[in-house]
Design a protein that fits this description.
The chain is α/β, with parallel strands linked by helices. About 35% of the residues lie in helices and about 15% in strands. Helix 4 runs parallel beside helix 5, helix 5 packs parallel to helix 6 and helix 6 crosses helix 8.
Amino acid sequence: MTPVEQPSPRRSKFPPWLRKRVPAAGQMEHVRDLLRDLNLATVCQSARCPNLCECFSRGTATFMILGRVCTRNCRFCAVAHGPAAPPDPEEPGHVAEATARLNLSHVVITSVTRDDLPDGGADHFHRTVKAVRERHDCTIEILTPDFRGDAAAIDRASAARPDVYNHNVETVPRLYSSVRPDADYRQSLDLLARAKNNSPDSATKSGIMVGLGERAEEIEAVLRDLRAVGCDLLTVGQYLQPTPDHHAVARYVTPEEFAEYEKLALTLGFAGVASGPFVRSSYRAGRMLDDFRGERRPRSDAAKHTG
């Protein structure tokens, strides 16, 4: 068993449940080569996701549009930050091409935060979803930044009619100042409410990290807030410190606690929940959409889901 990569010289010993086998490299290299050929980024690579090897070896990826540099500097995130280059006008077509060549049945499209753009990149999301729909038959999930609460930007992204509109609240309100100081908890809830109002038949989704110092009652309050704005799907995963300069891990949450969070979320009315140490925003994303729709895809398609 190989520990999940967490590049810190002062890392603590991982508990037994945070150990993961590394699969063979064959399909993983195929995906990497394809992304390189089309000049595409994935959040799997940029955010140092612990599921990268597993997903790449299954021929899956979560595409990250609008460049590789974020204009914010959240304390939990490994994505590079600083001044960003203009969006690549060819990128929507490249994402569509990669989706078709990987023969994905469900694709997740996310991005860095682009506060430097007038619409935060909402139109780029819209054009990318349209390009994928024109090129390949699949379901589509977008995982957007908060667009600083700009209603017109949220509406533009929603107008592409993704099957899932995902936006993460990330943590409990008390920790925002230390974990994501440029964001606003209420603003994120309002975004999810607006996305649901724009397309009631589509799923809305959010995610939260644990192990940052939150309390159990705070997690429950967040879950209740998400249901109050009509959020349908939920992911809960363990925070892992990308580098020593990032927010420290307060503790490693046990699998039993993750199971309790899943049970609570289902009791509160979430249609689909993924809760576990290695869960990330796009983890088994296609299957979660199936939960929302009350259906299951054939087993042969299961390996084509992103995340």
